[in-house]
Amino acid sequence: MNYDVAISYASENLERAEQLHKALTGSGINTFFARDAEAEILLWGKNPRKDMPKIYKEARCCVLLLSNHYFVSPWTKLELRSATNALPVVVGTIRDELRTLHDIEWPQGGAAALVPHVREKLKQLENDRLERRQRWQNRLKIGVGALASVGSIIAVTAVANQRTQARLEENTGPIDGHWVDSFGVAWEIEQDGYKIRLYGKAPNGIDISASGSRHGRSIRAEWSSPKGQGAIQAEIAAGGKSILGMASGPYGNFPFNLSR
């Protein structure tokens, strides 16, 4: 069974995990929680060390309930390595060096206040999936058109047209200016030729900077802050109005989606 959400937590934060599981399932979100009766039946007679990582890998989103305990437990380390799309939520004391750009603090309103964050994450992932599918279908149409061409001259012309169209799609114009990501972080981008620099400020006040390059629609950069560092890989979309991709950090990958 594939889940919308899998909850990863240290045993010391079991109470928060139970609250979140109740809030998500009560909102109709299909959620894996290791202490749930359904999960116990699912894993009955299986090797947890072998089968649990598969659940966290195949879940659309993994909510990581972070505290200092989380980074000690061997089970959470295993789940963290398997998580595909992480949504980190700080639920306890955590050392500064373990914090990253997109941490969310456990809200005063409790687990119910996290449900909109999870829904937004799932919506972003679905939009990304649909956009990737559309790009694949467009490439497939171009490929079928090329195969249907008759004669070497026509075939060469079709390939040339395809390359020209690709260049037109890549020509999204300059990306200098103000952007905001899906977590509410404000960004400033400067482009000089193929070189780019990005500046952001996280909700906790930490300054982030990144530098890299742009080639057509593709962006690659390395980011750093006083609390950590990582990499960014993204594509310019929607005629230069969106930047969609992923960033890596000290404990996994997270969406890097900008709009303006």
Task: Report what the structure shows.
It is a single chain. The chain is α/β, with parallel strands linked by helices. The protein is 35% helix and 32% strand. It has 6 helices and 13 strands. An 8-stranded antiparallel β-barrel has the order 6-7-8-9-10-11-12-13. The chain has a 5-stranded parallel β-sheet with strand order 2-1-3-4-5, sandwiched between helices. A hairpin with a 4-residue loop joins strand 11 and strand 12.
Summarize the structure.
The protein has six helices and 13 strands. It has helices at residues 14-26, 37-42, 48-58, 74-82, 115-148, 152-170; strands at 5-9, 31-32, 61-66, 86-90, 104-105, 177-181, 186-192, 195-201, 207-215, 218-225, 228-237, 242-249, 252-259. The radius of gyration is 21 Å and the shape is globular.
